[in-house]
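so ive been stuck on this for like two days lol. basically i have the seq below and the ligand is fe (ii) ion, smiles is in there too. i just want the complex predicted, nothing fancy, no docking runs or whatever. if the output looks off dont worry ill sanity check it later, just need somthing to start from for the group meeting slides
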Amino acid sequence: MTASPSGVLTESVSVSEAAEMARRAREQVVGRVSGHPDRRDTDEYFRLAALNDTLLPERVRDALDRLRDGAADAVVVHGLPADGPAVPVLGWTWLGMVTRRLGHEYGYRAEKDGDLVHDVRPRPEGAATQSNASSAVDLSLHTEVAFHDIRPDFVVLYGVRSPEPRPATRLVRIADAIRECRPETVRELREQRFRIAAPESFSQARIVDDVAPIGGSYDWPTIRWHSSIVAENTHRRAAVTDFLESAESVAHQVRLGPGSLVAFSNSRCLHGRDSFAARYDARDRWLLRTYVLRDVTRLMSRYGLEPDSAGIRTLAEAVAS
Ligand SMILES: [Fe+2]
């Protein structure tokens, strides 16, 4: 394991490991699933993937466990066996293994119509927006679903296709960003004085007030952030500017090509993406994404749902209130 002091763990799967992983994944997971992967009914595929997650090298599972228990903030894996572009069944397998090792996938009715596996692709109408459909502009640093009171504990991104050169996904640990900030910036951002709106990919317009972007303790800070963040006075606006400049200065660059995956804590990392040239054809950039809750029973308690297989979809329906 390459453990940088930054808390971002990077692993690579060797070519010989990958060949054996692909063979066994097709036999033990892909070949036993009925039909194609279904973005809104992931349970059969992900359950089988999870039952067979020992196909992942032990060091990869160990890194994911460190992310799950808070000993690391992000895990990057390169060299996973990639497969055909039409239906990335091996990609679904790795995504399912990683997602279920960290928790449980869930969705929002207002985001991609409740899909539990998100196709992240550039779209012409979103090219210049601050959303996952963008391409022509840098996607500025943010956390997922920052405006909502139920936010993913972890986010997993798997690369199906990428243009060359591969655009960088920028990853920033909040602890690193804070170290670079002026003390008054951190003091301001700990105040519940900021407004955050839903991103343009959400079909419902939502704005929340009285958000403290930085939370948690001194040693274990957390972050909620989106480009829509609004501050009402010059001190707070200066804090927003200083924070973003500081965060960008300590960004890790992860280039997701076919067979690469990143999983990160959504409360301890910000992420963004560099601009790239979209093609809007069958060779365009394409990621699979899941939102992960470590304890999905939070949703059951809140919405009174049962954990039956159809309920997984129902949770997605219910969360967007
Ligand atoms: Fe994002």
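DSSP finds nine helices and 16 strands in the chain. The chain has a mean pLDDT of 90.
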